[in-house]
């Protein structure tokens, strides 16, 4: 399958590290040393996961593709505004599309790759040929900014992709393969990082376990998806990892023997934007890619979940 377009939406409000120093005592230097984050985006009170998803869809070029040809919408988020009228259904309502499959999923921060795999399945079954994938997370709505363990990590954002079963003159990337898996049975998966709206909101009591497993499984998924398709690590041109922590990105790049500049990152100025982060990074760096470049998007989510998507730039 093929990716034709990627569009993103970021809230206007910028929150710097100085803000957190005022409310919880964490210094700018301390936050950078441990996370790499210098600033992040925060949704306004009038914004939410669904509205950001719609803004990302609006950013898709109406001249490059006819959104009325969409026959599948898959949304992904772990910070829903509404657990009934999901972000995917909000997008369907905005586009006024009738009688098509519409669903939203959550596998924490790895949700994007799982959403793409669902599209792959619909295409393989002949149930769709042009999908709209929308990912959005409004992390700050759930976070406790006074929490000195994880309150400073989170940013908000959304992205939308047009995915087609067959190539067309708008195709920019070919999806070669997707691998996803759960690791909910390892380490401290149930308690490592969690979001319980009625019981503490965002918490990360076992950050070290999350860090270790994220590094291990994103590395593993990257190697697996390359080897399964006959490629070596030396064939990899760029890595787009889940934007959780700059130290994780650097660790995974080191394990793979990849130069740090080939591991693309936006967490420094966006914070952890959840399942939208790696899609935003992919879109931001389109200008870097050259024809036939091999790119792996690799993800890890609390709970734990992980995966990788191998794409070729056309």
Structure description:
The chain is of the alpha+beta class. The protein folds into two domains: 2-164, Peroxisomal Thiolase, Chain A, domain 1 (3-Layer(aba) Sandwich); 173-313, Peroxisomal Thiolase, Chain A, domain 1. It contains nine helices and 13 strands. Strand 9 and strand 10 (201-203) form a beta hairpin. Helix 6 runs parallel beside helix 7. The relative contact order is 0.19.
SSE topology:
Layout: E1 2-9, E2 13-16, H1 17-24, H2 28-35, E3 39-42, H3 49-58, E4 72-76, H4 87-95, E5 102-105, H5 111-124, E6 130-138, E7 156-164, E8 173-182, E9 194-196, E10 201-203, H6 207-228, E11 238-241, H7 246-256, H8 267-270, H9 277-284, E12 294-301, E13 305-313
Parallel strand pairs: 4-5, 4-6, 11-12
Antiparallel strand pairs: 1-7, 1-8, 2-3, 6-7, 8-13, 9-10, 12-13
Helix pairs in contact: 3-4, 6-7
Order of helices and strands: EEHHEHEHEHEEEEEHEHHHEE
Count of domain modules: 2
Structural class estimated from helices and strands? alpha+beta
Q: What would you give as the CATH superfamily of the largest domain?
A: Thiolase/Chalcone synthase
Strand line-up in the sheet with most strands: 5-4-6-7-1-8-13-12-11
- Low-confidence sequence ranges: none
* SS element count, helices: 9
The second-level CATH architecture of the largest domain is 3-Layer(aba) Sandwich
**Chain oligomer state:** single chain
